Amino acid sequence: MHRIMRKQQLSAEVFRLEVAAPEIARERQPGQFVILQLHDYSERIPLTIADADAAAGTITLIFQTVGRTTHLLADLAEGEAIPHLVGPLGQPTHIEQVGTVVCVGGGIGVAPLHPIAQGFKQAGNRLVVIMGARSKDLLILEDEMRAMADELVICTDDGSYGRQDLVTAPLLEYCQAAEPPAAVVAIGPPVMMKFCAQTTRPFAIPTTVSLNTIMIDGTGMCGGCRVNVGGKTLFTCVDGPEFDGHAVDFDTLILRLGAYKAREAEDHHRCHLELGLEGAH
Known about the structure:
It is built from nine helices and 16 strands.
């Protein structure tokens, strides 16, 4: 059993949990994830490890309520436990000292980006962080990113905070600079990662993307996270979740993700309705 030591709501539908998991906290590396189950017969969901404290024996999970399991997870209180938690899983991020690294995060993608940005900074790189969200109230981890970044750029779609721009606009400016970045990491909605990769491609800047949103089972057994990378079929959960952004077939990926939208919307609506009914009693 893995007890929830601390719970925080970051925005309307995004939550942060600090969970007791000493062995995972000691072994995890940036880019890796865990799989959890809320009971023996519930679905298994993969969540990226957003941070860890080896001394305290805790890992940090940040997630958005989308389907039934994430809603039930968000409903747990401090002191309650997650019965099944396995990890760390997935290939860790390749981190080395390369010079200037630009890390681009969109929406909830800032959470899995956090340990990666942290790792590149600790490796001695100059760190630039670009964060984007639809509006100011949907931004997460601003203080944490500001504390480690040499430069922080914030973009919002509605102009309520920072620049009213897409994250690709400042990314292009950095690519066009006299000394462009040595590497770019982009994590967020697939369409955002697609256009980040298109932005860096003409400059031949190595660009890493994380395809964690397509993972289902998390072990490679279900085949649901198949992706086409450089003409090869790979599995996000065992071969990734990170890949060369210039080699990913984003168009096929986005089409496949759309297959789950109707079911996700149905679960999202039903969970909100159920929670509302429970609160009425």
